[in-house]
Amino acid sequence: MGLGKDYAQQQCSIARALEVVGERWTLLVVRDAFYGIRRYKDFLVHLGIPRAVLASRLQSLEQAGVLEKQRYQQSPPRDEYVLTEAGIALWPTLLSLGKWASGHLEGVDTPRSFLHVACGSELGAYGQCPACGDVVPAGDVLLTPRAGLDPDPENPVSRALLTPHRLLTPLEIDHTSVRVQQ
Amino acid sequence: MGLGKDYAQQQCSIARALEVVGERWTLLVVRDAFYGIRRYKDFLVHLGIPRAVLASRLQSLEQAGVLEKQRYQQSPPRDEYVLTEAGIALWPTLLSLGKWASGHLEGVDTPRSFLHVACGSELGAYGQCPACGDVVPAGDVLLTPRAGLDPDPENPVSRALLTPHRLLTPLEIDHTSVRVQQ
Question: Domain spanning A1-89: which CATH class is it, in words?
């Protein structure tokens, strides 16, 4: 069914949000940006999606002001994709989706935890810290793999995510081992 | 592109959530259920989507335990779709999407407000009440149209939503005026 991506008849801010982030894979690209993934090839390797799909999603997110390009190499010119302030504001949406699946879907394990950096407490469904009572901004969240998380050993991005990692900080990836199928 | 709806390679609870609610229109069906829409024809009229799409979404949401059928008429048998506890737990996701579009996308007006029933304050992006400081459960949220919201006058569901309405309570719709194109 050719459903397009707009919801023209809906006078609704939720529908407007879904026009930007509601396409398949889009929120997982945004998730990866929170995890500190910034380069095209790293997204490609971690998501395992066709190049055309990734390119389309990155372009749409840039046009919507969710991601912005930052040049990290002049010659040849290479850009990274970094979350804007508007992109970072998607954190409650991503957190709530993950919390919802972990808490309410059958057979969903919880491969990673979101902890408050300051105290190590696991965030609640609304992004609040149960110890401090505060809503925790994304930059103060520690992404922590649970025991038993077993990614593809050939995937250097997944391997890098086996170490606890503060959201929004660049993920240290062994780029020499990032190989993309042509 | 035939992208399917699964994210088989992703060891991620966010991906699992999107397998259930990430298809086009699905979260707007869930939104309508929060707004108190329960009957197939009311969803159809309000969303303006093809019958096959709506039927598929309702079936998927029922299978995932987000909606459950409740019989409201014995002869002929007719069922309503009502959010389960798991479905109601999607409230932070919907709220955060709406808040995000209103606050961070250009040219998005905010046709409706989400207010805390107890004090009339508008909820924050994380679902908290700025006056009370509490996280407000969906059942204590008053959906309130902003001035100027101007739905299709031929649409009885949209008309019913012009009155402030407490989430999760059945919406009073003039069913005699609900006409569905065959």
Answer: mainly alpha
